[in-house]
Amino acid sequence: MFKANFRTKVLLPVIVVMALLVTFTFLVVNQRITSQFIVEAQKNLQTANTDFRNSQKINQNQLQLRFRNLPNEPLYRSLFLVGHDSPTLERTFRDFTNEPGVDVVFYATSSTNIIATAQRDPTISAAAFQTTAGQTVAKALQGEESADTIGVGAHIYDIVSIPVIVDNGVIGVLTIGSEIGKADAETFRQLSYAEIAFLADGKVVASTFSVTNANANMQCLSLFQTLPGENQYFSADPKPVSIDGSHYFGVAGRFESSTDNQSLGYVLLSPYEDSLRASHETQQALLLASLCAILFGAAVVWFIVNRVTQPLRELRDSAEAVGRGDFSHQVPVRSRDEIGELAGAFNQMTKNVRQSRAQLEQTVTTLKSTQEQLIQSEKLSAVGEFVAGVAHELNNPLAAVMGFSEMLREADVDAKYRRQLDLIFKAAQRCQKIVQSLLSFARRHQSERKPVSANELIEAVLEIVAYPLRTSNVEVITHLQPGLPAVLADGHQIQQVLLNIINNARQAIEGHQRGGQIKITAEVAGHNIRITIQDNGPGISEENLRRIFDPFFTTKEVGKGTGLGLSLCYGIIKEHGGSITPMSKPGEGATFVIELPIAQDAKIPEENSKLSAPAKTDPREGAGLKVLVVDDEEPILQMVYQILTSSGYHVHTVANGETALQELGKNYYDAIFCDWKMPGLNGREVYERVRGTNPELCRRIIFITGDVINESMREFLEKEKRQCLAKPFTLTEVRTAVKTALATGSP
């Protein structure tokens, strides 16, 4: 491997790159100059071609104007009327050929009958001229003036044919020809500053070069031969041509002739000798300047590398020290250039690394604490799910307790036992409220805002926290204004806010004193519902009050709080368009004021009371009617069985959906009570099977469930218009449900 010092490694690539850049620049400049030459030549030659063709048309027009009225002059008119050879007409034509711009004149009465002719050049064959101009003469015989460019041997002519009209009839044609030659070429060169050569019959017949210049003639013929085939009158792409050491760009063109003579044309040459010389001088100057720049750049790079090497060695030594863990090492700053900035940046980097290491250590400690808090939060979430499951399971035995106690209340029992049955029933009702509150709070819900009552939300939360408040000797005093307007809110989220604040108040009182008081008020305040929660605990310091809604801020011991509760409360209330304001002074308790906007024109949905007094039993009510009860809980089966049989119904019970379908296949039933959640086939699957075999009977199915009716279940019940009893239920609800099903589902 090639070994070299740092200066060589830097200088060699710099020189190579500079040389490549110079070469590339030289090639680009040369290509650009050549392209510019071609573009300019193309423009010049296109302009010259346009000028030449325009001048040719002008010459033809002038020739027409010059002789257009000649047949109408009395002298010529009488000569033309003779209609046969006339020596006088030929003498007159010879006089025409003495005039400038007139080289051939003849008069013909048909395309083949020439009466008189005269030409300046006696070597020109009148018959050949007549044959070549035959199409122009034929067109004029039809009464229309015509012009054309023709070639006769080694001569090129612009001709015009003028009809001689007598008594609205054409009696002959006067044709005049003007040769395109050396004089026309010289005139064109003076006007366009371009060389031109005329070609006919495979040779140069006239040009701005010397006629004897064989090289020029050969180059012009060669360029003309590159012109494509028919219908191509001009070559737009210029080609380089060298004649006697002079450089030109040239293009070829054809005369537009009715004879379709492909050998009749011209060549235009635009010189670029001066431009080429200037280009060579520019390239030489550029090359010389580039070589000087390379040498100067190499010297400058060599000098700079020498200056840079020393600070880089110092920087290397410092980097090695930092790699060993010595962050106190500093690089001396010797200049204010990039090297000095690099040294300063390196020193700042070591300082930042020291600070970052300290911050990292602190962050690791914070992350450990946060991890513990998040683990605690996950534990609380798991406990919530567990509580929801337990509450759901409690609904089944609660239903049995409430149902059997209510049936015993209806029976003829001793007054002493009736009092005990009332206590059992009331205790079961209380358990029912607590279970419903736990289910409503602990279950996860999608955010759904609807009109809710603030008073009902407060009462539901107090049901949940009644036991911990009572065991902590905390008295709750409520002042809830009756008939409060509804608020448009997610009841579960607002319950979460209230529960969090009440629990914080209880914990603050419990940790500071023995017993205390929490006062809760709900009232209308302008366009809002104001909920005030006030405790007589230790209060909150002014410093903590400012940070109380910050995430992860807590004054509790590690493991007893996540610091997320109040920040979540703040976010929930703000999302509802309300406000939450803490007020406190140390030693005077704390107050939280929550304001939520009143929902306009919204009413709180009314719910049927589940605790209505049982109606009297009619033993003839279900006479002759059969009811099937499906539930996996034996107490529920027995309870519903006794409720319905006491009303005269013939009841059959089964413990699962499969047995229910078998029973329905053997016997006829007027109504069905079916649990929603069961092992094996659930209530909905049983319903679908019954609908497939007996659509009339499925209209008399009553669902029962111990779970909260979720959104999908609610949509199903509304769509199918089916009843559903939520456990625990009363005797009256069971009897009312079966009567409703029989009434609405009867044929």
Give structural notes.
The chain is built from 20 helices and 22 strands. The protein is α+β, with helices and mostly antiparallel strands and 747 residues long. Strands 2-1-5-4-3 form a 5-stranded antiparallel beta sheet, sandwiched between helices. The protein has a 5-stranded antiparallel beta sheet with strand order 7-6-10-9-8, sandwiched between helices. Strands 12-14-15-17-16 form a 5-stranded mixed beta sheet. The chain is elongated. It starts with 5 loop residues before the first helix and ends with a helix. 30% of the residues are buried. The model is unreliable at 558-563 and 607-614 (pLDDT under 50).
Which features would summarize this protein structure in a list?
alpha+beta, 5-stranded antiparallel β-sheet, 22 strands, 52% helix, 19% strand, elongated
